[in-house]
């Protein structure tokens, strides 16, 4: 009997990760034999963990917080979307080095446009955050046709660096968090910060929301998404979406890269959504 090919997600913290469950479900659905585990790694352990994974026959890794930028820097080759992000969430061992991809942005856009049927074209978009997730989604939001992408981050220099890397000064510009009140209203607001993990209120101005048609998206899910989604509903957003669908879709993109098959994401998403709803009701 052949040994199943080995895959994993690496990050810190990692115990909460749904990726092993998602990839196991995709594997059952497509009939592909694999193992997919979660590996906890501190920043100073990251390279040693990757080397050990390869030595044990590992084929591919998902990379999550806080390693995505480091992962990209280690890649011998990378897709244009990983290069645009300067961050990788999907590593494939080629035999001589790592190939890097970033599936976060494609996962987000697929969830919003295909599952939820939102048209992103022409929307004025506010992106809160400039960390690994923001870097992953920003180029794909531009590709999806937003009219403007205003990037605001607590640490202003990171928003500047992200906009510089995007290379579209006419559409993508950085602004200061303290100036949020003066930015006008938006047809789409994406929360790519992790502030919901630390704070129970987001405290954003309601004037950011274009009345009647603003789409609010938090890349987080579960408890961490509650403060932003509560703010979005109170501010009158037409739809308020968490990052669970993006999580499933970015995993499907990684799965396709590794196995050449695109899984049906519907059943896994439905199961995770039911589980999340049950947990929220139990609180
Ligand atoms: N659904 C999915 O598939 C998916 C995929 C990736 C990420 N995510 C989620 O996206 C979020 C961000 O992840 P990441 O990888 O980008 O993390 P990261 O690289 O650590 O970046 C964190 C971001 O949040 C900002 N931030 C943190 N605390 C803040 C606060 N109190 N007030 C304002 N801004 C604050 C940081 O600003 P500074 O630069 O000033 O520190 C930075 O922009 C996480 O919640 C993660 O779970 C979801």
TrEMBL record:
Q: Where is the Quinate/shikimate 5-dehydrogenase/glutamyl-tRNA reductase domain?
A: 112-194
The entry's shikimate-binding residues are 17-19, 64, 89, 104, 221, 250
Q: What is its EC number?
A: 1.1.1.25
Question: Where do the coiled-coil regions begin and end?
Answer: none
Q: What keywords are assigned to this protein?
A: Amino-acid biosynthesis, Aromatic amino acid biosynthesis, NADP, Oxidoreductase
Q: Which residues form the SDH C-terminal domain?
A: 243-273
Q: Which InterPro entries does UniProt cross-reference here?
A: Aminoacid_DH-like_N_sf (IPR046346), NAD(P)-bd_dom_sf (IPR036291), SDH_C (IPR041121), Shikimate_DH (IPR011342), Shikimate_DH-bd_N (IPR013708), Shikimate_DH_fam (IPR022893), Shikm_DH/Glu-tRNA_Rdtase (IPR006151)
Q: Which regions span the lipid bilayer?
A: none
User: Catalytic activity annotated for this protein?
Assistant: shikimate + NADP(+) = 3-dehydroshikimate + NADPH + H(+)
> Which molecular-function annotation in GO is an example for this chain?
shikimate 3-dehydrogenase (NADP+) activity
- Residues reported in the UniProt entry to bind NADP(+): 129-133, 153-158, 219, 243
Which Pfam families does its entry note? Answer: SDH_C, Shikimate_DH, Shikimate_dh_N
Q: In which pathway does it act?
A: Metabolic intermediate biosynthesis; chorismate biosynthesis; chorismate from D-erythrose 4-phosphate and phosphoenolpyruvate: step 4/7
> Broadest EC class?
oxidoreductase
Active-site feature positions: 68
Q: Where is the Shikimate dehydrogenase substrate binding N-terminal domain?
A: 9-91
Q: How does it assemble?
A: Homodimer.
> Which family is this protein grouped under?
Belongs to the shikimate dehydrogenase family.
- What function is annotated for this protein? Involved in the biosynthesis of the chorismate, which leads to the biosynthesis of aromatic amino acids. Catalyzes the reversible NADPH linked reduction of 3-dehydroshikimate (DHSA) to yield shikimate (SA).
Spell out the protein name for this chain: Shikimate dehydrogenase (NADP(+))
The beginning of the lineage is: Bacteria, Pseudomonadati, Pseudomonadota, Gammaproteobacteria, Lysobacterales
Recorded name of the encoding gene: aroE
